[in-house]
Specification:
The protein is of the alpha+beta class. Helices cover 49% and strands 17% of the residues. It has helices spanning 2-18, 53-56, 75-93, 118-126, 185-197, 232-244, 261-290, 292-314, 321-350, 355-391, 394-426; strands at residues 39-41, 44-46, 58-65, 99-103, 107-113, 131-136, 142-144, 146-149, 152-155, 167-171, 176-182, 203-207, 210-213, 224-227, 251-259. The strands form five sheets. It has a four-stranded antiparallel beta sheet. Strands 7-6-12-13 form a four-stranded antiparallel beta sheet, with no helix packed on it. Strands 10-11-14 form a three-stranded antiparallel beta sheet. A hairpin with a 2-residue loop joins strand 1 (39-41) and strand 2. Helix 3 packs across helix 6, helix 9 packs antiparallel against helix 10 and helix 10 packs antiparallel against helix 11. The longest helix is centred in the last third of the chain and has 37 residues, at 355-391.
Amino acid sequence: MKRLIFILVLAVLAAAVVWPQKPGNYIPGGDALPGSPGVRIGSFVRQGARLGLDLQGGTQLTLQADMSKVDPSTRDTALKGVLSVLERRINAYGVAEPQIQTRGTDRIIVQLPGVRNIEEAKQLVGRTAQLQFKEQGPNGQWVNATGVINGETRELTGRYLIAGRQQVTFQGRGGLPEVAFEFNAEGAELFQQISSRLIGRPLGIFLDQDLVSAPTVNAVISSNGVITGLSLEEARLLAIQLNAGALPVPVSIEEERTVDATLGADSVRKSILAGELAFLVVGLFMLIYYRLPGLAAVGALIVYGLISLATFKLVPITLTLAGIAGFILSLGMAVDANILIFERMKEELRSGKSLAAAIHAGEDRAWPSIRDSNSSTLITCLVLYVFGYQFGATIIMGFALVLGIGVVISLFSAIFVTRTFLDLVLSQRWAHRSGLFGMDIQHSLAEPRTRRGSTAPLSARG
């Protein structure tokens, strides 16, 4: 009874976590729960399942960092630096729940939910954003603008900007956008030296070797300046990039992909329909073929589904189309363990054992097969996940992760939950009939009679 109460409480809690914000989209006639569905414990908040780009729309970029000029011993540090800068840029841009992950030694995968302007996304994360100031040499060519600090000649670059001080402003009556920047003490001293010798001459402002503007210096400038000649969106992106800092190494865009939100919503509906149909078909098969044990298996399958979906939401695990396919596949694998148990149990019943003895013997004899088959599946999932991680194949990773978690939970549902439900059946006298177990033999499943002086059970006769 304690095990049954534990399972019921666990199922109710999982159902409360899983219950959707818009149940009418998933459950016919479903109503929303009072308040905001989800989980909130202190700072831990989970309001909904995390959906991948293929389910909610957005942009994915695969970046490759150029490590050719980086010492091998510091490449990990350089890659972490790129990751940190990208996180600051994307957070400042206002993308909800972005995902930035490293793959291998030189690749970064950036997923931007809701961002469907791929060119804008490429400008945000793909530019190094190395700001440089240059002056014209004797032949009119641009050369690095330098100054002297403590007897050392230094170039004026974006490294001297004060983080977070760059912002978009508007100039004059026309309200043209510009980016106002501010140097720290060393940068201000360099800027003052450079501007004092360039009065009446142009100062070139370059971003990633591209000339952005070349204003004429009319007075000595120290700590502040502006960059003009930009559209409003360009100015906004530049301010974000300058505040986040330049990437420590150049990056190139290796792959780009965008998914429309409408297509993503349609994929969600079709995936849910596929899952519901899979559950219905599997449940009907178990009820028709195994009858009462099949009913116990369906109950265990419901518990399995609730626990799995609650796990995906709480961790959280990003659900993709491939991940949903893995979950649906794991539904069948969860039932597979029950089928092995029930077939073994029927063999024991045919040999003349009582219902209780047949259930326990069936579970014991089926366990090695269940263990070995699920272990091989988990090993395959591990190999697929490692393969996907090394090569940046997020689709393969999602499939392997969801399937692996499903297999682990299915072991719990098939062994612990199903056995508890069968024990409940065992306690009911009306359930001790062969017809309820899909048997083709005609005898009672009560404790078998024994001959006087003998402990061996009588064999059932057809």
